[in-house]
Amino acid sequence: MEVQLFSEACILSADKKTLGDIMNIQEKSVVSILYKLTDDKGMVLDQSQEDPLSYIHGIGSLIPGLEKELLGKASGDKLQVSVAPEEGYGPHMPQLIQKLPRDTFQGVETIEVGMEFQASNENGETMIVRVEEVGDDEITINGNHPLAGMTLNFDVEVVEVREASDEELEHGHVHGPHGHHH
Ligand code: ZN
Question: Cα separations (Å) of 106 from 3, 78, 120, 174?
C-alpha cells in the first residue's frame, strides 16, 4: 500500500548557490548526509546508497537524537551517534501487536506477511501496521516501527549544507539532485 505524502504540483527551483562561506547546520538548513545505521551487534540496518540523503533540518525529518547531534556541524564533518529508543523510534509497545479476525481485511484478496496497511488508533491518528503472521482465521499485525525499541548507531558524514529555498520550506522537502523531482 502506497501512501502519498506530497502534492504533485510543485515547481523545481534552480537554487544552487555558487559560492559561500562554510555553513553550519541550523534550523531550516538543507543538509545532505551519507550514513550507515547499525544495531548493537554491528548488523547494518540501513545505509545511504550512492546518493546522499538530503533533508531539511529541524522539521522532524530525521529522528530527534540524530538531528540534535547534527546541529552546528558543517560539510566534511564525520560523526558517530548512538541514539536510544526514546530519541529514536520510541519504545517497543507490545499492545501495538494485535490479532485481528480475517474479516477485518474485507476487500483484500491476498494477505501476506510484510504487507502494510493504514489503520487508525484509538486517538483517531493514522498509523502504519505490518502483517506479522497470517493464520486461517486471524491475522497478526504490528504497529511498532521496525526500529522501535532499538538503540541505533549511526556513522554519518555531512556532505553539503545550504539554505533552504522558500519553496522547499513551503513544501517541507528538498528539491534538486538528491531531493524531489517533481
Ligand atoms: Zn516540492
Answer: 19, 49, 16, 38
| pTM tops 0.85 | no
CA of 24 to the centre of ligand 1 (A): 24
Q: What is the pLDDT of residues 24-47, one digit of tens each?
A: 999 999 999 999 999 999 999 999
Under 8 Å between Cβ of 56 and 169 = yes
State the distance from the centre of ligand 1 to the C-alpha of 160, rounded, in angstroms.
19
Instruction: Specify the CATH number for 29-89+148-171; select among 3.10.50.40, 3.90.230.10, 3.40.50.300, 3.30.70.1130.
Output: 3.10.50.40
CATH (residue range 94-142): 2.40.10.330
Q: Please tell me the distance between residue 116's alpha carbon and the centre of ligand 1 in angstroms.
A: 25
